[in-house]
Specification:
Number of helices of chain A: 26
Transmembrane segments (chains A, B): 77-101, 121-147, 187-211, 217-237, 277-294, 314-335, 399-429, 450-476, 482-502
Family (chains A, B): Belongs to the chloride channel (TC 2.A.49) family.
Helix content of chain A: 40-55%
Radius of gyration of chain A: 29 Å
Number of strands of chain A: 14
Strand content of chain A: 5-15%
Shape of chain A: elongated
GO molecular function (chains A, B): chloride transmembrane transporter activity
Domain CBS (chains A, B): 647-708
Oligomer: homodimer
InterPro entries (chains A, B): CBS_dom, Cl-channel/antiporter, ClC
């Protein structure tokens, strides 16, 4: 935690309060304090911003000029090598993960099914629920004790990081090779693209997901590098799958590059197929926004439980696990047994492996369609739902039960202290109701039920995650059916539009609930009515170009600011001159190295580049940075001076105080800043009147300064779920 | 042309010189004059920047506040409606275009082939060459007289426009509905996405192309809107194709949603297939960069011819047409006739329609494989090359001849005064050499020759256009083979990397040759060594908040600046105050409306919002703006005053003079600016020391100010084509 522990504004505040506040009302509205806390995993973390801006001071410029071609080549080569390694490692991890899931969960279902065949139902339930319980316990203990940030899907955390939010729990294992936040950001972007690419074997979809959903900044070089990374993933995965096709991967043996192949040459649709597809889109939009709404509420309740102690967390996870086991084991008994079709495409009932026709409790020659869905891994369930030529395989009631089970179980199991995704549950849920709609439309349609399931999955993804291009490509890469593209686009269009009328993207809701100070792309309308001068709050801390050591130590110890303007004032210059900005971390390094001058004039011939190298100022991994509290200085040293000029960034971004907040936000976000200097519009005053940070752009901060804006009519118009809101 | 005609720096300069200069040395290096010319089509156009920045003055703010919800809704609805219309119109145009090409060109080939069947070779040649000649003449006359900007592919022009470059020839038909450059930019982006979507029936590829290659700025809202537009395209096209499948579209009858379907379930490849694919990538990279190099040189020669007169232009186009006809008709005679295979998938020889086996001059039962490629439309030639199960259909020599023909013909026919694309010719060329490589590798590979052709097309596209994700998706959408994805990614990766070592992206080369002042994403390394103070050149023109009419008129008449800082100075204020910036167009409107004050003090109670509405300042379509020369003012009026405050943008973007040029460029480009105010670092001076525009960031301008940087070692390392360079 180290330097990141920041006292909240009121040190006597109820500790419980500080946890619940971000959940209930977003951020604390304390003017110009940097006290922001986020809930990462189930921990409360103080929040810092990241230094994405290139810091240009004399020392760094000299270092840069002195670099030879070889060093530049090495640097470039290193960046590409890291991308290659990320691609390689992520695809290995993804593959092993897939292999483990397919084999562990597959084995669990096979063993249970075999016991069911022998009609040892009690024993089967025990094996089923115990294996679930043990796996959950294992996962939640690891998560709770070792990597609390790993709970949940991780996507909101990465998204916040790429926006410039640094909650120290997010990346505990920061590589030491990368020296600055900017390079790290690029690698994290490539990594997130690679993650999606490996999880869904969708390399192009991975790049697009990183671009559309994750990244706050984008440049063409990054597109190129993340394409490289996912290409590595695609090639490595392809090689592994080649290996598996020869039957060496146990139950995973049939895994191809395309997960749910629904290609059928005969797919053709006409104008009359459009209305049911439109209906699917509308339903998907409503269900998706409802899903987001409920998930956020459940997360809020869970965080109340989780914050109590690790024991509570694990207890919660285990209870959910037992509840789930009972539900999953009990539900198939509701379904009536159906006779095996004569022309079944595979053995019926399916025994000893995953497949379409699970026997469960049924007599020989019969199968239980609900068990076929529930007693399979998620991947197999999706494959069942997407498959063509199976229009008569499922009953209406079974599909409906399965839909409700998935919908609510996935919401309730997300917030527990264990890593869990959103993508796959949403696809299963969407596929089941899509198939249900297909069954209702029945013979009036040219599309088979499997294709309806695909469109249903697309609509719920669109309604919950609100992406367009990347979802489109991911679905294409998952299902391998390009002919369906116009319909998928239509469904995504409709479901996103409908869902946007109710609430936001699921990842944004989770980020907000966790309290990350995320900078939105769009300025709120009231920001156009305010100027930056209206939100800057004092007092401004600044240093002189030649500053007394004691002053620096005092300011660093009493404030938590991370950037300080440097102003040269008389007598050192004729009139106030803005020299630039200096970072806290650099000041601490200077104090630690004790590069002091005995007098405030520069006759000593102080040479920065001789005493320091750029490496001295490279950012350490989080938690390893020096703290001001650790530096001991003698009384005599406190009276000495430091020449800050060589370490001052002479290229600070600035705005005039009359600049509208909306335009300042645009600059802040597009360029990726941490500090923005506010300069006066009148020449004669001090060259800097304030400093803007991420915090100053947060709606909560602005509204606390200007409460009359709260009720202004510029709020985004949205429908609410009024009845549901009362439940929570 | 109107206000866009800007005299070049030296009015006595040879007019020919002003045309050739941008081609030969990029831009003129005249310090701080806005005299930039571009060659759009074959016309020389003066260049302006676009006002993408939101202009925030009191009047607009008041107008914005007074808007009701209905108006905001109307505005939003209008934007979506326009996107819908763009999608609809583009898909209609694209479809009709396709229909016309397939039927016109198809008919030409069928008629010629029929004459060949009757062995009337002379007549066949006459029909063939005359129809080519007439079509070319028609196209070039239309282009030369009506829409000179339509020559070439149009993509470089749109790319420059989206970067903020406004050469008036680019969009002659500016819609009057859209009132500002910012909204227009969004629509142009959506339009370009729709264009690619319609041309290749690749809706997702279209969005990505617009994102990766065209757009200089991007926001998620734009992704969403362009996705909407291309979804409309996809649905409309799908409906038309449905119509055509019932056989109502003549020769176009078989056009499906996927243009070149190469789906084959049996596609499987292993490690031993990687080396030939890598080789394809390397060759594609070299050929692609060579293609770009040659195309640029040819464009340069053509522009020397084209600038002479319209007659020369049309003559050039017609000569190229005749030369092409002779070549295409003569070449198939070189190929030996091959006997029809016994198990041919279609009738051999193919008679009366396009197809795989053209008879040409061959005896019955034989076919001419080169004629099968040449005497088909481009689409059919690609389909032939991509087709599977045709590994024995082509001879090595025929494919090689076809490759060279395509490679050079497409280069020579691009620069003539007629609309021409680059995508399809590059695909044909790439497919032919890919197929050739496939034939060389032959039985040692698991991939059939058709798949090699696909990979070859990918490699040449990658080598010439240097896109990654969008090309990947476009190729997938064209060929419908997702299993090939890892190999396509590999090929694109290698070909782009190889080609980047030689030269730039083809569209960038064309833009440079045309003289567009395009702002690059990356700052040149020497920009990090310069501060903005080093490139700002005087004298700075500024106005006071209350300014004399005569002064304004004088400055507007004697300079061509488009933005003027407004400074309030004593006695109107105690010390100099930076009020903001005002645009030339707004000043002209004020002068025209004659909203003058008789005295320089504000006792008159001047009320801007009563006299003006925001609509008065909306940007007209180009050429319709008022000019300062058209405004007549009496001697008395010249002595009056204007209060500029309500029309001043109080939110100008600013940089300190010590800011490094690289960081200022980042701001300028990321935020999309036209003017950037430079403020002094010392408080006591005037609040503004200069103004930066696009021109000040152009390497040519900077290097003319600091010639010692030309030979600095920071230039990008690239291999050259030394021997070839001497040829031109």
């Amino acid at each position: 935690m180290s330097r990141f522990i920041i006292s909240t504004a009121d040190p006597n505040a109820d500790p419980e309060d500080s946890v619940t506040v971000p959940l209930l009302s977003g951020l604390r509205s304390v003017p110009n304090s940097s006290s922001q806390v986020a809930i990462v995993g189930v921990n409360v973390c103080p929040i810092e911003s990241l230094d994405y801006e290139i810091f240009e001071n004399e020392l760094f410029k000299q270092d840069w000029r002195s670099r030879g071609k070889l060093q530049i080549f090495q640097y470039t080569f290193m960046k590409w090598l890291l991308c290659f390694l990320i691609g390689l490692i992520v695809s290995l991890v993804g593959f092993c993960n897939n292999l483990a899931v397919e084999n562990l969960a597959g084995m669990k279902f096979v063993v249970t099914s075999n016991m069911m065949l022998e009609r040892r139902f009690g024993m089967a339930f025990l094996v089923f629920s115990m294996s679930n319980f043990v796996l959950t316990l294992f996962a939640s203990i690891i998560t709770a004790f070792i990597a609390p940030a790993a709970s949940g899907s991780g996507i909101p955390e990465v998204k916040a990081y790429l926006n410039g939010v640094d909650a120290p729990g997010i990346f505990t294992l920061r590589t030491l090779v990368v020296k600055n936040d900017r390079d790290r950001r690029d690698l994290v972007t490539c990594g997130s693209a690679a993650g999606i690419a490996a999880a869904f074997r969708a390399p192009v979809g991975g790049v697009l997901f990183a671009l559309e959903e994750m990244a706050s900044w984008w440049r063409s070089a990054l597109l190129w590098r993340s394409f490289f990374t996912t290409a590595v993933v695609a090639l490595v995965l392809r090689a592994f799958i080649d290996l598996c096709l020869s039957g060496k991967c146990g139950l995973f043996g049939t895994g191809g590059l395309i997960m749910f192949d629904v290609y059928s040459e005969s797919v053709s649709y006409h104008l009359e197929d459009v209305p049911p597809v439109l209906a699917l889109g509308v339903i998907g939009g409503i269900l998706g926004s409802l899903y987001n709404f409920l998930l956020e509420k459940v997360l809020r309740i869970y965080s109340l439980i989780n914050e109590k102690s690790i024991g509570y967390k694990i207890f919660l996870a285990c209870s959910i696990s037992i509840f789930t086991s009972c539900l999953l084991f009990g539900l198939p008994w509701l379904a009536t047994c159906r006779p095996c079709p004569a022309d079944a495409s595979e053995a019926c009932p399916t025994i000893g492996r995953s497949g379409n026709y699970k026997k469960f409790q049924c007599p020989p020659g019969y199968y239980n369609d609900l068990a076929s869905l529930i007693f399979n891994t998620n991947d197999d369930a999706i494959r069942n739902l997407f498959s063509k030529g199976t229009d008569n395989e499922f009953q209406h009631s079974s599909i409906l039960i399965f839909f409700f089970t998935c919908f609510f179980l996935s919401i309730f199991s997300y917030g527990v202290v264990a890593p869990a995704g959103l993508f796959v549950p949403v696809i299963v849920t969407g596929a089941s109701y899509g198939r249900f709609v297909g069954m209702l439309v029945g013979p009036h349609s040219n599309l088979n039920h499997g294709l309806y399931a695909v469109l249903g999955a697309a609509s719920l993804l669109g309604g919950s995650m609100r992406m367009t291009v990347s979802l489109c490509v991911i679905i294409l890469e998952l299902t391998n059916n390009l002919l369906l593209l116009p319909l998928i686009m239509l469904v995504l269009l409709v479901s996103k539009t409908v869902a946007d009328a109710f609430n936001g993207n699921i990842y944004d809701l989770i980020m907000k609930a966790k309290g990350f100070p995320y900078l939105e792309t769009h300025a709120e309308p009231y920001m156009r009515q305010l100027s930056v001068g209206d939100v800057v709050t004092g007092p401004l801390q600044l240093f002189h170009g030649i500053e007394k050591v004691g002053n620096i130590v005092h300011v660093l110890r009493t404030t938590r600011h991370n950037g300080f303007p440097i102003i040269d004032e008389p007598p050192h210059s004729e009139c106030p001159v803005l020299s630039g900005i200096i970072l806290r971390a650099h000041l601490v390094t200077l104090l630690k190295k004790k590069a002091f001058l005995s007098t405030p004039d520069l006759t000593g011939g102080f040479n920065a580049s001789k005493q320091f190298s750029a490496g001295d100022f490279a950012k350490r991994s989080s938690g390893n940075d020096e703290k001001i509290e650790d530096i001991d200085l003698s009384e005599e040293e406190m009276e000495m001076f430091i020449d800050l000029h060589p370490f001052t960034n002479a290229s600070p971004y600035t705005v005039v105080e009359t600049m509208s907040l909306a335009k300042a936000l645009l600059l802040f976000r597009e360029v990726g800043l941490r500090h923005l200097l506010v300069i006066p519009k009148i020449s004669s005053r001090s060259p800097v009147v304030g400093i803007l940070t991420r915090h100053d752009f947060m709606p909560e901060h602005i509204l606390s300064l200007h409460p009359m804006l709260v009720r202004s009519r510029w709020k985004r118009l949205r429908f609410r779920f009024p009845a549901l809101s009362k439940l929570f």
